Amino acid sequence: MGLTLYQKIWNSHKVAKGPGGRTLLYIDRHLLHDGSFHGFEALRNGGRKPRRPEAAFATPDHYVPTRNRANIEQADLREKIAALSANAAATGIKIYPVGDDRQGIVHLVGPEQGISQPGITLVCGDSHTSTHGAMGALAFGIGASEVAHVLATQTLWQASTKTLRVNVSGILKPGVFAKDLILALIAKIGAYGGSGYTLEYAGPAIRALSMEARMTVCNMSIEAGARAGLIAPDDSCFNYLHGRPQAPHGADWELALAAWRKLPSDVDACFDAEVDLDAAAIEPMVTWGTSPEHGISVSAALPDPALQQDPVRRAGMEKAMRYMALHPGQRIEGLAIDRVFIGSCTNSRLEDLRAAAAIARGRQALVPALVVPGSGLVKLAAEAEGLDRIFIDAGFDWREPGCSMCVGMNGDLVEAGQRCASTSNRNFEGRQGRDARTHLMSPAMAAAAAVTGRITDPRRLQAAAGRP
């Protein structure tokens, strides 16, 4: 029987078997950010040094303000950012600091720099490390003690997962994006549908996605409860990686390419479970509640919890509707929005900003709208194309790169009771600020919400302007 992509990577990284069926895995790449200070502290307290500092890369993102960086007023933010630079300098770990054009959200920096590569194991102290699975890497988030363990040993004890293949047939329709695809999947299988699994996305719709769109899909695998998300590397992946600073070069590139082409799951590989999704049937999606599984098409009405047979899910839906101040049967399109956030490791890449700018061009924001590029390189590229001017002319706030309002650790917050149209990955209670109400959607729909003041199908605005 053939092997899956997951099995090939897992088997090639086994170091030892341990009790309880756990495996000691070799870790190829370790990404660190300004929230990784606990790991460095544990390393110092144990009198240890990094085993392979050249395999680790750091950049501040969670606590970095998106404005006034030259004089950060909040002492706690300033200290955490400074601590990362000090820890990197003391251990010989490469860092992309504030002020460096390469600084940004760690899950954008990894692919941009060619750190994320097919067939490797990659970890980071952040749950959305699954993003790097778009490169064909087995990538997952780890805790603070595990950060210290990887720094000290370049290995990690892990239990293997089952495999679930998500077969996505057809092609996404115009005005429907990767964010809609992953929200549709999570709505179908639920926030725990991927628990105990690594997801592998396959099918013509996945192959048709750009690398940036694939990163959006893999990024939110964790929101379906999965340990990781994977997409088999192909020519799109190889072309994206070629020439990037940390990618192989010269003869090493040809050797790597030969190895990477052997990684896709074998034709006769057996998956533990499979799910089918028709991309052509997906409409623009938006969440109504406090879980990413609370997603519906923009033209739909809110579900009735009373029709939910599972009492736990029914109670959860009722609680979510109370928190979000919504009611069963209410239409989601037309719901008034107080502010908009376009950014996060899910949707802050150049392709995302282009999609939002296409809606914003020639229009005016009716509510405060924040646009935060995911990295300095994305910001520079967007400005070279004039996207910043489109946003600024439309009344959007153009900021410096960082996690920003996705996580609310850096001063960018949604006020209590406000509704935010957000391109981020989580809509949990209080995620963007105490009592904030978050509606997840694509960058195009977020831009449409900004210029209409309401949740709006972006295709209406595209059609009105005669845009594709």
Per DSSP E runs of 2 or more residues, the count of β-strands stands at: 19
Low-confidence stretches: none
Widest sheet: strand order?
A: 5-4-3-6-7
Question: Which word captures the global form?
Answer: globular
CATH topology of the largest domain: Aconitase, domain 3
Number of domains: 2
Which oligomerization state do the chains in this entry correspond to? single chain
Number of helices: 16
Output mean pLDDT: 96
For this structure, what is the CATH homologous superfamily of the largest domain?
Answer: Aconitase, domain 3
N-C termini distance: 45 Å
CATH architecture term of the largest domain: 2-Layer Sandwich
Largest sheet: 5 strands, parallel
Under CATH at level 1, the class of the largest domain stands as Alpha Beta
User: Strand content of the residues, in percent?
Assistant: 15-25%
> What structural class do you assign from the helix and strand content?
alpha/beta
Which percent range fits the helix content? 25-40%
Integer-rounded radius of gyration: 21 Å
